[in-house]
Specification:
Order of helices and strands: HHEHEHEEHHEEEHEEHEHHHEHEHE
Low-confidence stretches: 112-123
Helix content: 25-40%
CATH class of the largest domain: Alpha Beta
Oligomer: single chain
Largest sheet: 5 strands, parallel
CATH architecture of the largest domain: 3-Layer(aba) Sandwich
CATH superfamily of the largest domain: P-loop containing nucleotide triphosphate hydrolases
Structural class: alpha/beta
Shape: globular
Number of strands: 13
């Protein structure tokens, strides 16, 4: 699965892995039992393009070598084309097309409405922002994590600014440290060295040492909402909690659900009763409830189909333009980066 083979990596816990690494560990565990049939539910959603291709190639090789039957659930048509022979297109549980993969994809391409293609723009407009002071200022950031008896460096000397109303993209392969950098900014991971400031105000590297208002103004939308939503709270209570905690007015749970295109009756459900895409949109609604100045989007569209992902990114882009919110977009989707980001930081 293109993962490190050293003893140090094997001793790490899941929370010490990137989303893409956790995904590959799950696939490796499933293959370890030498199954005759394998059901893969979005196995490549958290992977960069190069890693995705390597994993798909390995899965196809194993399927052919061991006579393995594979059912692939995905919204990524590229993965479907590379891995499958038969394709079923579903819409609200009903099969709308079926047949050999390449034939189904060819029919889908001919019937795609032109309006979806016309909506794409080549590059974002520069924000009209008279405030020269950045919303987020990162200077000489050094971050690492402990492995066995030594430290593994994630980043050294990282410096960048994000102004109000700007979107900065952070891209790189799985395991490059994108999520660790995001957690340093939010205070969930202690940086080794560096300076982080919000609107010119220095931020403590430990989230517990930051004020309630500082925590409110920076919101992280996680890559995996299943680990971020309290399974004992209904969706409505989860979204309403920031409103009560920070005593905010003007927003309601219903308005926030509308912003992320969810039905109001979802407010009565628990997270385990949601699909992956629905859970991700609930996480976004919860972040928006705090009225943040900086939104960090950590692969928020990796589990979503293309139309839903476009709607969500468009919503966040509208907030950026209308409210002057700064956005840090962590993504493997180069089309999204090209469309929404003003500045790109590439990790290697």
């Amino acid at each position: 699965m293109q993962l490190p083979t050293g003893h140090g990596f094997q001793r790490r816990y899941p929370h010490q892995l990137s989303g893409g690494q956790r995904q590959r560990v799950a696939v490796a565990r499933a293959l370890s039992g030498q199954p005759r049939a394998l059901i893969l539910d979005e196995p490549t959603s958290n992977l960069d393009a190069d890693t995705r291709h390597l994993i798909v190639t390995e899965l196809r090789r194993r399927a052919e070598l061991h006579d393995l039957a594979v059912v692939l659930i995905t919204h990524d048509m590229t993965t479907a084309a590379e891995l499958t022979e038969q394709l079923y297109i579903l819409d609200h549980g009903a099969v709308t097309d079926a047949g050999p993969t390449l034939e189904v994809l060819a029919r889908a391409a001919r019937t795609t409405p032109l309006r979806h293609r016309a909506e794409r723009r080549q590059a974002p407009d520069n924000p009209d922002n008279p405030d020269s002071r950045p919303a987020l200022c990162v200077r000489d950031l050094h971050a690492s994590y402990r492995k066995a008896r030594h430290h593994v460096t994630v980043t050294t000397g990282l410096t960048f600014d994000i102004h109000h109303g700007e979107c900065t993209a952070l891209i790189g392969p799985s395991g490059a440290g994108k999520s660790t950098i995001a957690r340093c900014i939010t205070g969930h991971h202690h940086s080794d060295h560096g300076h982080i400031a919000l609107d010119g105000q220095p931020l403590h590297r430990d989230i517990r040492r930051r004020t309630s208002d500082q925590r409110r103004r920076i919101q992280l939308i996680p890559q995996d909402p299943a680990t971020a939503l309290n399974p004992r709270r209904r969706v409505g209570d989860t979204i309403a909690r920031p409103l009560h905690l920070h005593r905010l007015t003007g927003l309601t749970v219903e308005k926030l659900l509308d912003m992320v295109h969810l039905d109001h009756d979802i407010a009565h459900r628990y997270p385990q009763h949601l699909s992956g895409g629905e859970a991700q949109r609930v996480a976004i609604a919860r972040a928006l409830a705090s009225r943040p100045d900086l939104i960090i989007c950590d692969e928020i569209t990796s589990a979503l189909d293309r139309p839903t992902a476009t709607v969500l990114l468009s919503t966040i882009d509208s907030l950026r333009r209308d409210l002057g919110v700064a956005v840090l977009l962590i993504s493997h989707d180069h089309r999204a980066v090209k469309r929404y980001a003003h500045t790109v930081i590439r990790l290697v």
